[in-house]
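User: Quick sanity check before I run a bigger batch. Here is a single chain. Can you write out its predicted 3D structure?
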Amino acid sequence: MYWQRLFWILPLLAIALVGCGSGEPDAGKTPEQVEQDAGGMDQGDLQKMVDEYKAKIAEQQSKLEEIQKQIKDLPVTEMMSEKANELKQQVTKISDQIKELEAKLQVYLDQLAGK
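Assistant: Done. Predicted structure follows.
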C-alpha cells in the first residue's frame, strides 16, 4: 500500500517542483497586455523583468547560433535534406520568439525610462 501511494506521489511532486511553464516571462501575453501589467509596477519590478528578458533573449540567441552552426556544417549534399529543412524551421521559430521577447522587453524599458 505504501509503495502504491509513493508511486503516485513522486511524479506529482516532481512536476510541482520542476514546473511546466515555457520559461518565458509573461508567456502567452501580447505586448499590449504586458504594457498594462508594466504600468502598475515599480522601478525595481520593472528592472527585474528587464533582466529576465535580457537573459531569455541571450539564451535564445545562443540556441539560434548553435542551430545556424549546424546548418553551416552540413555537407552540400544534405542542404536540401529533411534535416536541413527541420533546422531551418527551428531557426525561423527561434527568430520569431526572439522578436516577440524583444517587443515585450521594449515595453518594460519604455516604462522604466518613464519612471
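The CA atoms of residues 66 and 92 lie 13 Å apart.

User: Great, the batch can go ahead then.
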